[in-house]
Amino acid sequence: MLGGNSRNRTQTRHVLGAAAGACAALTVLGLTAVPAAADGVPDFRPEQWALQSAGAQEIWESTRGQGLTVALPGVSVNEEHPDIRDNLEVDTEFGGNGTDTEQGTAAASLVAGHGHGMDADGGVLGVAPEAELLVLPGDDLPGAIRYAVDAGAQVVLLPEEVGTDGDQSEATAEAAEGGTLVVAPAGGEEDPNVLAVGGVDENGGLVPDPPETSSVELLAPGAALEAAGTDMGLNEVTGTPYAAAVAAGAAALLRAEYPQLSPEQVREALVGGAQQGAEGLPLLHLPGAATQAAEVAEDNPLLDEDLVEEDSPDVPVWIWFALAGVVLAIVVILLALWVRRSSKDPYGVAAERRTQDEELAAERAERARAEERPSRRRKGGRRRKG
């Protein structure tokens, strides 16, 4: 695994009586469970301090990332894990889904884990639990980044810090131009098109073996995080890759809520709306980021007319003329039929004349028959007497 460590932890469900007792104990101690399910159904998912620290639940009132795709290139995942399988797609364009699934599975669940379902059975909730996950295993990160952008991913989460690969830098630049925000663990080369994220623990301190602070643009929860494990259970993970996963989920929420914003505007909102963290670095705070994003969105139309024009297919002029001709011909035909129908004996004169002609012909025939009957009697005459 790159840049982090984990500790296996199997989640066990207790009977309802024991769970009720645990909830009562938490109430007495004044602790807050996360997050309560809808309609008053208790949520037995593990306490996830990262969600509370980032203020994700406040944003969930508006969006949970629905309609948004986050791509994870360069990792493999446990496709059958119940916390991610319902919104997960694994594309093997650049390599098969391997057996080393620890980092990928954990990161995927931190971005968009949906737990075991909507009935509060348990499991991990990601920052954007209704977003879609596109996993692209393989070593070709530049190719996978370009592929993810073409597939419509609005956020790309890199598994490791940015290296010196020039092709990768070109790919991230193309992603930014294509409307995709790239997020990566801090500690590598500076890339103006990548949001570099460092990690903090629950007390606000930097994670063990932190990257150089000069390479960190944003801090996010990255220590002792409950995440989906390789054994269908849970792992507790620590490291900058997992802090980057939390930040990627946050970016997904903003992009889902404000689709008119560019990747750079979303990035500025995340950094500008942050709170002060360790070493004076900005610490992820979604409510503040959403406030900044909303202010910028007011000045940006939801529909980018330039993008619409660019995306519109070029249609030859002769096709437009042909279509116009067909429509005009149909209109003329319909108009002619209407005129013919409406002008055909509109006042019933012809019908009245036919009736009169028929009556006159009948009278003449009757008169002719009447004239023939007397002439026949005169022709016979009376018989002469002998």
Automatic annotation (TrEMBL):
Family stated for the protein in its record: Belongs to the peptidase S8 family.
Stored PROSITE patterns: SUBTILASE
Signal sequence range: 1-38
Transmembrane segments: 317-339
Lineage, opening ranks: Bacteria, Bacillati, Actinomycetota, Actinomycetes, Streptosporangiales
Organism: Nocardiopsis terrae
Keywords carried by this UniProt record: Hydrolase, Membrane, Protease, Serine protease, Signal, Transmembrane, Transmembrane helix
InterPro entries xrefs: Peptidase_S8/S53_dom, Peptidase_S8/S53_dom_sf, Peptidase_S8_subtilisin-like, Peptidase_S8_subtilisin-rel
Protein name: Peptidase S8/S53 domain-containing protein
Basic residues bias: start-end ranges: 375-386
